[in-house]
Specification:
Layout: H1 4-17, H2 23-41, H3 49-71, H4 76-104, H5 111-118, H6 142-157, H7 167-187, H8 201-204, H9 206-215, H10 218-221, H11 228-240, H12 248-253, H13 255-264, H14 271-277, H15 280-287, H16 289-301, H17 303-307, H18 313-343
């Protein structure tokens, strides 16, 4: 069985070489992007599967980043280089094509739109014009904002000697703080940001932070975790995203606890869980998940205009999203990342 310590070791090496992979974690990423695609193109009324997919990924990201930064103590220079090579080339290509096509058809994006987007600040700026109201397909980039802000926050914690060995408590405390901020925004609208505050990092990073903190404690609890527990936790989390049954607030404040527990204890889950996550279709989706996530948004946002005359236009958009995602991953993202990691 792949233990959590081997996961941490392999993940950190993966961060340095971009070569080693863990099949069922790739499958977990694949599950995340599948939920996003299903929620966007083949939505089931009342089930917030798209948001669940993002949170599934956030919790995995928290686990891996915590192990890399706080257990293996990968140097920050190496950490930043690998994050840059992983995110920036594909991200900039996407923006170049989106804003480039917009300019070619006479819809040039203003600087107030482009600059915050490039700087991972579009969920904050401009304050009076939220990214979901943009005419450009950039609404999904809110999750990248959360990721990048969280990477910076987690990395900065390594600079405080008095926190060494206490990072778990600090991360969980900040995770709970994000819940408190969310509840404050909800209870007191006068203090809440004017637009879609639920995608801002001080609210949306809950699952990532809780998972990062719990990742540093899970080796103590693992001997007491029975195989059925991660399965039950995932089932509860899935149910909490059913908006027709549970309030939306629970998906933001309670479900992340269950997802964080699940991903941190996949090593203790039944073998059939890891085997299912290791199936080739899920693994392949997971490997190319970032490019697929980037490129699904234009097809999602414009599917009725692009494919309205075709039967099953939503399914057409979904298939094209995956196809373009795989193409850009293998033809560009993976090659550029490998080259940068080799020369940098």
């Amino acid at each position: 069985m792949m233990t959590i310590e081997k996961i941490a070791s392999s993940s950190a090496q993966h961060g340095a070489s971009e070569l080693q992979r863990i099949d069922y974690l790739d499958g977990w990423r694949g599950l995340a992007i599948f939920l996003v695609l299903q929620g966007h193109f083949l939505a089931i009324q009342g089930w917030h599967s798209g948001r669940m997919g993002v949170d599934v990924f956030f919790c995995l990201s928290g686990l891996l980043m915590s192990r890399i930064l706080f257990q293996r103590r990968v140097p920050l220079a190496t950490f930043y280089k690998r994050r840059i090579s992983r995110i920036i080339p594909a991200f900039l290509l996407f923006l170049l094509i989106v804003f480039g096509i917009a300019a070619l058809i006479g819809k040039t994006a203003p600087a107030s739109e482009v600059v915050p987007t490039v700087l991972f600040l579009r969920s904050y700026l401009p304050a009076d014009f939220h990214m979901f109201a943009s005419s450009y397909p950039i609404g999904h980039l809110w999750s990248l904002n959360v990721e990048e802000h969280s990477y910076i926050f987690l990395s900065l914690l390594t600079l405080f000697p008095f926190l060494r060995g206490r990072e778990a408590g600090a991360l969980i405390a900040v995770g709970l703080l994000t819940i408190a901020i969310h509840l404050s925004y909800y209870a007191f609208p006068d203090i809440a940001p004017p637009k879609e505050y639920w995608v801002r990092s001080e609210v949306a990073a809950t699952g990532l932070l809780l998972s990062a903190g719990y990742a540093l404690l899970r080796d103590r609890t693992a001997p007491h975790v029975r195989p059925w527990m991660p399965v039950a936790a995932f089932a509860v989390a899935t149910a909490l995203y059913v908006g027709s049954v549970f309030p939306w607030m629970l998906t933001m404040t309670v479900a992340p606890f269950f997802l964080a527990f699940t991903v941190n204890h996949l090593a203790e889950a039944p073998e059939w869980v890891r085997s299912s996550l290791s199936l080739a279709p899920l693994r392949l989706l997971g490997i190319a998940s970032f490019s697929i996530y980037l490129w699904q948004q234009p097809f999602y946002q414009y599917k009725r205009h692009l494919f309205a005359s075709l039967p099953g236009h939503a399914l057409v958009g979904m298939v094209l999203s995956v196809a373009i995602g795989f193409l850009t991953f293998y033809a560009y993202e993976n090659r550029v990342r490998t080259w940068l990691n080799r020369v940098w």
